[in-house]
Write the structure tokens for this entry.
Amino acid sequence: MKSPFAIAIHGGAGTILREQMSASLQQEITQTLEAAVRAGHQHLEQGGDSLDAVVAAVTLLEDSPLFNAGKGSVLTHQEMVEMDAAVMDGQQRRVGAIAGVKHIKNPVVLARDVLLHSEHVFLMGEGAEAFAFAHGHTYTEQDYFFTERRYEQLLAMKASDQTALSESVYPDDKKYGTVGAVALDQQGNLAAATSTGGISNKRYGRVGDSPIIGAGTLAENGNVAISATGVGEYFIRYQVAGEVAARMRYLQQDLVTACETVIQGELKQVGGEGGLIAIDQQGHIHFAMNSSGMYRAAIDCDGVCSVKIYADE
Ligand code: ASP
């Protein structure tokens, strides 16, 4: 019998409303999600490892202007992009994380390079970029990341002095558009990856939950791999990914119970809007969210592909 393998991805959770979504945008989003999940799945099918599978899926999402990572990153108060990313391999608990990079086309690939080639696990800012250029990444101008959509979003937020947008022409701008992936490979190894531009109008070198192991990203063999999306400040304070894993490890809670308890519990009551994707050692996948939607896709152990947007799907 073939060993089970499966993959799930997300393109961010938040307020995503049917009545504001155009058919053409919805189609673009679902097509990109499907392409990304298939890119990751192909690695698994060919016997590749889960770490490369999650990086392949997230790279494709980073290259799309539709999501808040890589090319489509939101803008800071200074009208720059500053991106964060992390990868974790559940087999040996190896980690690569970066924060506040401005000139790296694919932050998730850099995070994997930190995992593979650095004695450290978490690099930030200029140091992370120096490491990147020493390891074959090319300098990418900020212009590459600039999109009209994110500029309009920033201007609207500056006008209302917010860090979360209330009015916008884009149906999903009240959404945290981080991207992520989790996978189980045929060797039984779990991995997770998360990549983000953070939140629009952020200041002072703000870093969210995405690159922080145990907050936005986690993978541990024998238990679970998780990638989260939402208001990073809350996901850090409530150690969201670590809390799900601890519930499964110590309380023997199943995947669904552990994820739902955390996402629908105190986190939600205090304003921690968002969600997560998770996969357990058997390849069961769960999507949990306390928001009206989360862009997401999966190919399960039976090879069935699904792509969804709204919470009630
Ligand atoms: N969690 C991310 C952050 O706070 C935002 C997101 O999920 O889009 O940086």
In short: Confidence is low (pLDDT under 50) at residues 165-171. The pocket of aspartic acid is lined by residues 12, 68, 176-178, 196, 198-199, 208-210, 216, 229-230, 232, 235 (CB under 6 Å). The CA atoms of residues 6 and 303 lie 8 Å apart. The chain has nine helices and 13 strands.
